[in-house]
Automatic annotation (TrEMBL):
UniProt organism field: Myxococcus llanfairpwllgwyngyllgogerychwyrndrobwllllantysiliogogogochensis
UniProt family annotation: Belongs to the Gfa family.
GO molecular function, one term: metal ion binding
CENP-V/GFA domain residues: 2-116
Domain of life the protein comes from: Bacteria
Protein name: GFA family protein
Keywords recorded for this protein, A-Z: Lyase, Metal-binding, Zinc
Phylogenetic placement of the source organism: Bacteria, Pseudomonadati, Myxococcota, Myxococcia, Myxococcales
One Pfam short name: GFA
Statement: the UniProt record of this protein carries the keyword Metal-binding: yes
Length: 126
């Protein structure tokens, strides 16, 4: 069981089972929402229990995706594709240990110009 929360604690969550290896998304939407790049793990919706779900505000950022954040403190927590049975959860919201390691970088063609990726992990342009 892995647990986590938003900054103020109004939203807590639990994930049953191991966390899949996370990825780091460098697309412009993730960078603008998170303030840097977005690191998350994709877990089956059925494996996630959200307490305080009434405090989650969903923003539909495209026809295919919505993003969830805490309406009290603004913590960005979830990225949810509408046509798949998974939810991406922000790695920074988990309590340690997560027992994972970053697996890859995606949308690196859109990454910010103020940082370099030098960790040797795979990089996908899109």
């Amino acid at each position: 069981m892995h647990r986590g929360s938003c900054l103020c604690g109004a939203i807590t969550f639990e994930v049953t089972g191991p966390l899949p290896p996370p990825n780091a998304c460098h697309c412009s939407q993730c960078r603008k929402q998170s303030g840097h790049f977005w690191a998350s793990t994709d877990v089956p919706r059925a494996a996630v229990t959200i307490h305080g779900a009434d405090k989650v505000t969903w923003f539909r950022s495209s026809e295919k995706v919505r993003r969830g954040f805490c309406s009290t403190c603004g913590s960005v927590l979830f990225w949810e594709p509408l046509n798949k049975d998974v939810v991406a959860i922000a790695m920074g919201a988990f309590d340690s240990p997560t027992d994972t390691r970053l697996a890859k970088h995606i949308f690196v063609a859109d990454k910010g110009d103020y940082y370099e990726l030098a960790d040797g992990l795979p990089q996908n342009a899109q």
